[in-house]
Design brief:
Number of helices: 9
Radius of gyration: 26 Å
Number of strands: 24
Distance between the termini: 84 Å
Largest sheet: 7 strands, mixed
CATH architecture of the largest domain: 4-Layer Sandwich
CATH superfamily of the largest domain: Metallo-dependent phosphatases
Number of domains: 2
Strand order of the largest sheet: 6-7-8-9-11-10-12
């Protein structure tokens, strides 16, 4: 293992120098991938990790999938493997510690491992057996939330815990039970839009940026990008996952020049599944992102996440030896952290839009983490942030009618600041364009320099209306 300890020390010093506000401190643990072929579960390692969760008195455990082996298992065998997992984890449940799990690809092995041309039984398959364990009112201590999208209840869900929102993302189409490599983005966008908590912790089984396996969210880069941007807009700084059996911590540079809002991918597939050998570079389709490895360890272990008001400290806790004949001693292998800064987030224009110059456009933004912002300062740049021009100081209403300046530029950015904390701001993720309309179009009713269905909608909205009540032509039609 070779982790970047100099960065860890720097992060730790910044955290230690920040005064706590007196809010309640709390913690949770992340680990996953405990599959093993005999009983479905690597019971010795999983039992050690269950003891660690209880020892730390964690508020809850996040477990991003691959609880069991599932390969070539009948529905009955698969359900028994899930019960084997539950039995090993009983000390956590009995301690009153929350357990939030999501499915991995090994919980969908009746699809992923099926013979060509065969499909799971639609009335008895691994997805439905999952619900018998984790979506069954007969087992209330095991039952996961049912507030996800239709067909994904007890698989995709959101939980508010103290000053955080935790989101589980099923990536296998819920009870439709497919190897989908994607999430329900519409549901996630709506849920994050309503969030009022400063912390957001999202987890799912598959890495967003490919390491060892190609079967991950990297299979659909544009959908993966939408997921990543939605976490960023919500103020999240982490994405927890598994699938590739090791601990791998990468910071993902999104190219906006603001490293303080970059999201970290943490693969924590370290609960007993056989380890893989892998080293950078990250060779998937990374789009406009640049993943950089900060730490890598093929060791059994877990991530301890400690929340202190707006501060978050994450510690990779690794078993000192993978030799299970040696005592189960776990200690820190990497420590890093960050501070969330609730504030405004630019929603539109946020990159790649084309706006007509000298026309009115509705700027939109949101406020993350329940920040109490009374007014915002709006600025724009026509040279990708080298120089900034004030637009206005307005009430924090979430929208503003902006008359775009008379410029031609493909390097425009919008910046919105908290008027009382100018260091709390957000900038368009990527440049947008301002351009002059070089042709007068009489049918361009909304001034966007094109004639399209938006103009037709305006026309139809006032079709046969009359503005002069004294004109006989204004009489209603018979």
């Amino acid at each position: 293992m070779n982790c970047t300890r100099c960065r860890n020390i720097l992060c730790w010093c910044v955290l230690a120098a920040t005064a706590a506000s007196g809010a309640e401190r709390w913690r949770f643990i992340v680990t996953c991938d405990s599959r093993q072929a005999v009983t479905g579960v690597n019971e010795p390692v999983l039992a050690e990790l269950a003891s660690e969760v209880v020892r730390h008195r964690a508020d809850f455990l996040l477990y991003p999938g691959d609880l069991v082996h599932g390969v070539r298992a009948t529905p009955n065998q698969f359900e028994q493997q899930l019960w084997n997992w539950v039995q090993v984890m009983r000390p956590i449940y009995e301690a009153g510690i929350g357990v939030y799990v999501c499915r991995g690809n090994h919980e969908a092995m009746d699809v992923a491992g099926a013979e060509p041309g065969t499909e799971p039984d639609p009335i008895d398959n691994h997805a439905l057996r999952w619900l018998r364990v984790f979506g069954n009112a007969a087992h209330p201590d095991l039952m996961l939330p049912d507030n996800g999208p239709a067909g994904e209840e007890h698989m995709t869900y959101a939980v508010v815990h103290k000053n955080a929102m935790i989101v589980s993302l099923d990536q296998y189409a819920g009870i439709r039970h497919q190897i989908a490599h994607r999430v329900n983005q519409d549901w996630l966008d709506e849920r994050l839009e309503r969030n009022a908590q400063p912390h957001v912790f999202v987890f799912g089984h598959e890495p967003a940026f490919r390491t060892y396996h190609s079967d991950c969210l990297d299979a659909f880069p544009s959908r993966r990008d939408a997921l990543w941007e939605s976490i960023k807009r919500a103020g999240g700084r982490t994405y927890f996952c598994g699938h590739d059996h090791y601990y791998d911590h990468a910071v993902v540079d999104d190219g906006d020049g603001m490293p303080e809002n970059d999201i970290h991918q943490l693969i924590v597939a370290t609960a007993g599944a056989p380890f893989y050998t892998w080293a950078p570079p990250y060779l998937g389709d990374n789009s406009y992102f640049l993943p950089e490895q900060l730490c890598h360890a093929p060791r059994y272990g877990y991530v301890l996440v400690e929340v202190d008001d707006l501060e978050v400290t994450l510690t990779w806790m690794e078993r000192r030896s993978n030799d299970l004949s040696l005592p189960p001693l776990y200690g820190p292998g990497e420590t890093w952290g960050y501070r969330v800064e609730p504030g405004p987030v630019v929603l539109w224009p946020n990159g790649n839009e084309r706006l007509a110059a000298s026309q009115a456009h509705t700027v939109r933004w949101k406020t993350t983490g329940g920040a109490d912002i009374r007014q915002v300062v709006i600025e724009y740049s026509a040279d990708e942030g080298t120089n900034w021009t004030p637009v206005d100081r307005v009430t924090n209403s979430g929208c503003y009618e902006w008359r775009a300046p008379a410029v031609d530029s493909d390097a425009c950015l919008l910046r919105i600041r908290d008027a009382d904390r100018l260091h709390a701001y957000d900038v368009s993720d990527r440049p947008f364009s301002l351009f002059h309309c070089r042709m007068q179009l009489r049918a361009d009713l909304n001034g966007d320099c094109r004639v399209d269905f938006d103009d037709l909608a305006i026309l139809l909205g006032e079709w046969l209306m009359c503005g002069n009540p004294d004109d006989p032509a204004c009489d209603p039609l018979p």
